[in-house]
Specification:
The protein has 50 residues and is mainly alpha-helical. Helix content is 30%, strand content 0%.
């Protein structure tokens, strides 16, 4: 993760790391850490072009 909050990144702090650890014990994860991979400007497909 980037430490530049101006680029839509989430700053890593000790409190945030502790939160991630707590929710990880319940098999949860924050959506904002993977949102850029889930929502893309162009669709991505695993289908092969024929």
């Amino acid at each position: 993760m980037s430490d530049d909050p101006g680029k839509g990144a989430v700053m890593e702090t000790p409190e945030r790391a502790a939160f991630y650890e707590r929710i990880g014990r319940r098999n949860l994860a924050p959506l904002w850490t993977s949102l850029n991979d889930l929502i893309t400007p162009e669709p991505r497909s695993n289908a092969a072009n024929a």
